[in-house]
Amino acid sequence: MAEDREMAPESLLEASHTPNSLQWQQHRHENGVEVDEAEEEHVDEGLQLQPDDDNGPTHHPYAPPDEIFDITTTIDPRYIISLIRKLLPVDERQGDDLQGLAEWSSSNQRPDNDQRANGASSPKIDSGTDDNDTEPREKTAREKAWEESGCVLWDLAASKEHAEFMVQNFVLEVLLANLVTSDSVRITEIDLGIIGNLACHEALMDQITSNNKLLETIVDQVFSDDAPCLCEVCRLLTLGLQGCQRVVWARALQSDHILSRILWIVENTLNPVLIEKSVGLFLAIMENQEEVAPILLPTLMNLGLPDLLVNLLSFEMGKLTSDRIPERYPALDSILRAVEVLSVTDDYSERICSNKEVVQMAIELIKIPEKTEISSSCVTSAVLLANILTDAPDLAFKLSEDFLLLQSLLDLFPFTSDDFEARNALWSVVARLLARVQEAEMRPSRLNQFVLMFVDKSDMIEDTLLESKQDESSNCDAHTISEAKFDSRTVAIKCIVKILVHWNRVKDEESVAYDDADNLEKSCPDERDVQKLLDCCLKHAS
Fold first, then answer.
1. Which among 281, 168, 292, 295 is positioned nearest to 219, based on CA atoms?
2. Least confident of 210-219, 517-526, 531-540
3. pLDDT digit string (tens) for 430-477?
4. Could you read off the pLDDT of 299-347 as tens digits, one per residue?
5. Do residues 512 and 444 make contact, with C-beta atoms less than 8 angstroms apart?
6. Which helix (H) or strand (E) segment is 253 a member of?
7. Which among 279, 252, 254 is positioned nearest to 265, based on CA atoms?
8. Which of 83, 204, 266, 453 lies 20 to 30 Å from 28 when distance is taken between CA atoms?
9. How far apart, in whole angstroms, are the C-alpha atoms of residue 31 and residue 446?
10. For residue 261, which of 288, 210, 300 has the smallest C-alpha distance?
């Protein structure tokens, strides 16, 4: 799958003006869209395409009567209308060709393990085959035209101008009719994908929400067994819960059997894209503490959401440590974000913070050697650990003995340059661990180990301190920096200063020397480097 609001192909977007009738026909042929003789006659006469009054079904919506389209678009409006018309639901009275689409609707079922790369919301042309079929059935011209038209509309819906024009020309009514009448998972997926892209535009989201029948039908799609369809419905529900009318969407989801179904999907699927999208739905619920969470979160908690998230995290961590699969990284990140948000949610944080398995998995992820590809998940784990230590401060004493954990936390600072809150959380954890380090009681080898680590990361520490200072200056007027966050960084820097000062005081003592002469040179920090770092820390310690 490509990215969530991928635009139409370049061939559709190159034109800078509305083409004439000949250009329009050529344009449609180039894009694989059939032009029948009736349409050519309409275009030659400069008329807008409309259904035949005598033969067309009465429930099909008509295009607006105006011949002049007052919109700014690089696509001929008549072309968009023709695409919408090709999506009109099947009517058996209209002949064998349409009946072929009906047969496709009933037979086009995917295997359960069908997956689409990256979980994006851009269409993918379906081959018309089922992996379980020994002799794949060739799709009819009508089936191909429907799918191609739907995929083009899916792309066009990402553009606000095109999306508004589509809605003005009754695309929502056409899509609703397809959702109600079709049994094809491919048709359902395309319908939901188009609606999902339309919902990205606030004004159109309001129109979707105000259509009670459409909203109810969308929610009912959670009972589908097709992974791509479920991915699209989860994306659409998430958009609804993040929009201005989120309370309406929350109430549409609040029944126990709907929430139980969503939890069941997450618990039983192995599709990483579906895990990402469905957990993203839970995240949207938890993030809105004022309106959405009070409606849905109590039921989800009673149905076992915390245990489900922990099990999912354990599963993804197992996959990560045994065989790194980049396609699973977004799912891991989504799960961690949900766990982190739940760890600071009033009345429910204890379910996460008191879970030893969660603590262990967070530490394991922070300490993982190769962080670049999963840096977002590692940073989220550090934020989660900061939240846990706030609720369980005694845990810091035990963790302060884990030198590799402290080193790994410092390694995460470069990944937080654009995330002020995450950097503050990192300072908080580092401060809690260093505050329990008793430098005066350290063995000489242990003291050298700490100083070497700080010197090795001196450039990173200096850069991070400068970034923190700049963030404070830019955010001071908005009062976004709490004393606790400021104190965390100050405490951490003062602890580093204490360790460096103590090393300077005892470095020449005989007890500090190593017996292994071969390791002496590389085990002893350079005094000039230590002094440079000490000067930098003293400048930021007040």
1. 281
2. 517-526
3. 999 999 888 777 888 888 889 999 999 988 988 888 876 666 555 544
4. 999 999 999 999 999 999 999 988 889 999 999 999 999 999 999 998 8
5. yes
6. helix 246-253
7. 279
8. 204
9. 69
10. 300
DSSP, collapsed to helix, strand or coil, labels residue 62 as: coil
**Could you please report the per-residue DSSP string of 289-352?**
TTTTHHHHHHHHHHTTHHHHHHHHHHHHHHHHHHS--GGGHHHHHHHHHHHHHHTTSTTTHHHH
Residue-range domain boundaries for the chain: 1-125+138-243, 254-392, 403-542
Q: Per-residue pLDDT tens for 135-162?
A: 556 777 877 889 999 999 999 999 999 9
The DSSP secondary structure of 475-538, one letter per residue, reads: HTTTT---HHHHHHHHHHHHHHHHHHHHHHHHTTSGGGS-S-HHHHHHHSPPHHHHHHHHHHHH
* Among 369, 380, 438, residue whose Cα is nearest residue 407: 369
Q: Is 403 helix (H, G, I), strand (E, B) or coil?
A: helix
Cβ neighbours for 310, distance < 8 A, ≥ 6 positions apart: 339, 352, 355, 357, 358
**How does pLDDT run across 403-412, given as a tens digit for each residue?**
999 999 999 9
Decide if 324 contacts 368 (C-beta within 8 A): no
Q: Which residue has the tokens 């500090």?
A: 512
pLDDT at 109: 41
202 pLDDT higher than 80: yes
Q: Output the pLDDT for position 117.
A: 30
Which two structure tokens, joined as six digits, stand for 403?
Answer: 């030198």
